[in-house]
Amino acid sequence: MDAVTRIEHALAKAIDRTGGPTAPPRLAAAMHYAVFPRGARIRPRLCLSVAMACGEDDPAITDAAAISIELLHCASLVHDDLPCFDDADTRRGRASVHRAFGEPLAVLAGDALIVLAFEALTAASARPGRLAPLLSTVAGAVGAPDGIVAGQAWECEPQADLARYQRAKTGALFAAATAAGALAAGHEAAAWRPLGEALGEAYQVADDIRDAVAEPEEIGKPVGRDAALGRPNAVLRFGLDGAVDRLQTLVSGAVAAIPACPGAADLRALIGLEARRLLPKALARSAA
Amino acid sequence: MDAVTRIEHALAKAIDRTGGPTAPPRLAAAMHYAVFPRGARIRPRLCLSVAMACGEDDPAITDAAAISIELLHCASLVHDDLPCFDDADTRRGRASVHRAFGEPLAVLAGDALIVLAFEALTAASARPGRLAPLLSTVAGAVGAPDGIVAGQAWECEPQADLARYQRAKTGALFAAATAAGALAAGHEAAAWRPLGEALGEAYQVADDIRDAVAEPEEIGKPVGRDAALGRPNAVLRFGLDGAVDRLQTLVSGAVAAIPACPGAADLRALIGLEARRLLPKALARSAA
To answer: Smallest CA–CA separation between A123 and chain B, in Å?
Structure first.
């Protein structure tokens, strides 16, 4: 089974469990809608790739770690789109969750996805020594002081350090994806964090580039939001060429940060491939 | 150390960890505000009481289970008070979190408290066999299909089964409190659930009674909200005397459901005491 099929299968199984006959049907529908059809699944694919590069020995644990991270990502999108934050009407080319189901169910679906993400980790109970570090790694990437929720909260502060804001808002979950991939395969996490951190920063720059220059149809959401909302953006700060240079430097740094492991060559190739997918189509063609 | 001191101490330690020098200060303040000063702490005290009745052998795990449940309760209050749900201006006698910190930080503080609740459970990692069932028990009490988030979501359905709604919205976290108390002490959880379920239902009836007849100053939030919002309420359904009878029947049932254990007598006495605290002062005097 390829990585994407594994992830979709594991996500579907987890989401199905929340929609049994006793579940409130609209909540179950909102949770399903928030997770399917698939987004890029970039974080769980990264988690799987790292576990495989480490010589994965228990795929059920890798799947659990990967979907835990994806469910948290989906939850964060649902809450970030709410009227009190980005007030986004669309996401992935269709109505955002609160536009489709109303604000109460969007809040609750996000909450329930966070809970489901942690519940999924119980799949690691067959190897009890792996569960606690996985739980701690995933929770640290989401909560306060340094996770994605804290990252979003920096938008509510009168002053924010840009690097810290982006590290928390985007980098934390990428670093957790690589760390959790290693942990799921029984390896130490620390050596794998720099790879995730560099990719997280690259992804943030790529997102800034897409927000500045992509077509709305290509990315499935409105563009130019950073300029409109006065949010930091690498293109506004460095110019388009500067931002593309920065992205390429970060991707090279990520590749160089891959620890020695059986699957290092495959992982390097994969990251190069992914990096090209991060750019808007027009730029990717010219950079190829 | 008495139960309340243990709980406050463990909560303060957990909350302090989220407010380090790298944390967004207003998020940290909102999280602290949502948890302190203390509410009744009825669920974590129940969790501790059950663990002690079972012959607690690792207090750090009991504390972790107890505060996990309390943090989830606090998170649910923050989100339930939001304008899109109860739109409550006050809670525990002062401004609700979104009134004090704004809606974005209320959403995020609730999210971060959910994450912290799961992170707290890593304290059980010293006894790896207890972590997975604790995680599963706590998550099941909060998420979909049957946890408190699902309970709240029944308010968004055109039709809801009243018993299922209340079991999910209130009963689930009480049942988790007793189950987690047993698990934290290395006991099986199943035998302890009926006690939590009966107490959860009793608490719901008591809450209905307070909403209908207490003074706002006594309960620190507006009264008469159920009638105003068309929500189910035992007093509206059975009358005041009928609701008080129902409460007393449920408490007797709870006491009868205590499994055989070393501390059963103490636990019975404690529950009797707590039950009297559930009633508004005027009624408690006449029922004494």
So the answer is: 9
Verify cis geometry, omega within 30 degrees of 0, for the bond prior to B37: yes
Complex confidence, ipTM: 0.94
The pLDDT of residue B242 is: 94
The H or E element that residue B220 is part of is none
A139 with B115: Cβ contact below 8 A: yes
Q: Transcribe B143-157 into DSSP letters.
A: STTTSHHHHHHGGGS
Q: Break chain B into its structural domains and give their ranges.
A: 3-287
Enter the tokens of residue A137.
């790694």
Look at residue A161 in the predicted model and tell me its pLDDT.
83
Q: Select the residue from A26, A27, A73 to test the B interface by mutation, using most B Cβ atoms within 10 A.
A: A27
A and B: number of Cβ contacts within 8 A: 204
pLDDT of residue A272: 87
Which two structure tokens, joined as six digits, stand for A60?
């059920």
Residues of A in contact with B145 (CB under 8 A): 17-20, 22-24, 28
Q: Low-confidence residues of chain A, pLDDT below 70?
A: 282, 284-288
C-beta atoms surrounding A170 within 10 Å: 21
Cα–Cα distance, B213 to B192 (Å, whole number) = 32
If you measure CA to CA, which chain B residue comes closest to A111? B111
B27 chain-A contacts, CB cut-off 8 A = 144, 149-150, 153, 156
Q: Do the chains contact at B143 and A115, CB–CB below 8 Å?
A: yes
| Entry pTM | 0.94
User: Please, how many CA atoms are within 13 Å of residue B280, restricted to the half-sphere of its CB?
Assistant: 21
Q: What is the pLDDT of residues B219-270, one digit of tens each?
A: 777 788 888 877 778 898 899 999 999 999 999 999 999 999 989 998 998 8
Q: What residues of B are in contact with residue A116 (Cβ under 8 Å)?
A: 139, 143-144
CB contact under 8 A, B131 and A129: no
Question: CB–CB of B115 and A153 under 8 A?
Answer: no
Spatial distance between the Cα atoms of A159 and B8, rounded to a whole number of angstroms: 32
Q: Is the pLDDT of residue B288 over 50?
A: no
B111/A110 CB distance under 8 A: yes
Q: Closest Cα to residue B22, out of A180, A178, A143?
A: A143
Residue-wise pLDDT tens digits, B72-130: 999 999 999 999 999 999 998 899 999 999 999 999 999 999 999 999 999 999 898 99
Q: State pLDDT tens for residues B3-37.
A: 999 999 999 999 999 998 999 999 999 999 999 99
Please indicate whether, in this complex, the C-beta atoms of B128 and A124 are within 8 angstroms of each other.
no
| Domain B3-287 sits in CATH 1.20.1250.20 | no
